[in-house]
Write a structure and sequence with these properties.
heterodimer; A: 94 residues; mainly alpha; 6 helices; globular; B: 261 residues; alpha/beta; Protocatechuate 4,5-dioxygenase, Chain B; 7 helices; 34% helix; 23% strand
Chain lengths: 94, 261
């Protein structure tokens, strides 16, 4: 088994670099997250993402994103940070 | 000198609790963190050397180090409303970097990267007062291919030797674990049996056996972050662990551990 083809976390294919960069920026860059929340198509276009990538992002379709090479942790945390930014759900801060 | 050794969970739900998380469980983990803080206060460290797995925060796919040392003047990170800034213990950072390289570990170093929550979630609860400087030590846990468990252990052996020979009082802390699978289909099914077997081994001073694990085994068990524990295990050797708590939630095995030196 090479680098865990069945692994939960796999080598991110180079072809998915832009998609993973988008998810990374949504996770970690406040300005980009704001642009993505306001207009995800335009934010995705900044990174030159393809139609299938944009469709999966707009649908929030984890399986489709991972199938396109997205890292599962980035999908997970980008979604969490977007929901936090929108104030979705209650949160207790310690 | 090495005066203390710990491992702490760092899941962000311990810091910002959504209503999906059991409040009593979260508070029990906080109580274990408070014990760590009390121990750190008693141990009077000059610096906390913290080994954490980067969550694709300091290092993205443009550069993925297996092992890294933060050797800047200070480091900072943000998470939601939280803002953290820690001074770096520069003399110790340089010593670990230079002596680690001399010992054959090709360490990356950085003087300016954002700090990952794996560092500041435990520190939020465990930093003694007055606060002490930090030495962040990165291990790649999320971007395959990661360093092997054996390599992480061997780095810990070298790191322990380096720290014991230093004049500063150093507390070594691993951040991470236990079983969890963020972003995957198994998110709701952590491997609690694996965690409990490992904790039993740690209590008996057999933690170094984990160095024989494969990367595939850690991935399968949802324990890729135990690479950070392996660094500490390499440094402390066969010291039996005192398990402060093991609090498994529906998605995460939260553990807090000390290796009394």
């Amino acid at each position: 088994m090479s680098a865990g083809d069945e692994a939960h976390y796999r080598f991110p294919p180079a072809a998915a670099y832009g998609l993973n960069r988008c998810l990374y920026l949504v996770k970690s860059d406040d300005a980009y997250r704001g642009r993505f929340a306001a207009d995800p198509r335009a934010a995705a276009a900044e990174l030159g993402l393809g139609d299938a990538e944009v469709a999966a992002l707009l649908a929030g379709d984890r399986d489709a994103l991972v199938g396109l090479g997205a890292h599962p942790y980035l999908v997970f945390m980008a979604d969490l940070r977007l929901r936090m930014a929108r104030g979705a759900g209650s949160m207790e801060y310690f | 000198m090495l005066v203390g050794a710990f491992a702490c969970a760092h899941t962000p739900q311990l810091l910002a609790r959504p209503d999906t998380e059991d409040r009593d469980l979260v508070l029990r983990v906080h109580a274990a963190f408070a014990r760590v803080r009390a121990r750190l206060t008693a141990l009077r460290p000059d610096v906390i050397a913290m080994v954490a797995g980067d969550h694709v925060e300091a290092f993205f796919l443009d550069a993925v180090p297996a092992l890294a040392v933060y050797a800047g003047r200070e480091c900072a990170g943000t998470f939601g409303p939280y803002r953290y800034r820690f001074p770096i213990h520069e003399p110790l950072a340089r010593a670990v970097l230079e002596q680690g390289i001399e010992r054959g570990f090709d360490l990356l170093y950085t003087q300016d990267r954002p700090l990952d929550y794996a560092f500041y979630v435990p520190l939020h609860f465990t930093m003694p007062e007055p606060a002490v400087p930090l030495l962040p030590l990165h291990v790649n846990v999320y971007l395959p291919p990661q360093p092997t468990p054996r390599r992480c252990h061997d780095w810990g052996v070298a790191l322990g030797d380096i720290l014991r020979a230093r004049p500063e009082r150093v507390a070594l802390m691993a951040s991470g674990g236990m079983s969890h699978y963020p972003g995957t289909d198994r998110y709701g099914s952590p491997d609690l049996d694996y965690d409990r077997r490992l904790l039993d081994a740690l209590r008996e001073g057999r933690g170094r056996e984990l160095a024989a694990a494969t990367g595939e085994e850690l991935d399968k068990a949802g324990n890729i972050e135990l690479r950070t524990w392996l660094v500490v295990l390499g440094a402390v050797g066969a010291v039996p662990a005192d398990v402060y708590c093991y609090e498994p939630s529906w998605h995460h095995g939260n553990a807090v551990v000390e290796w009394p030196l």
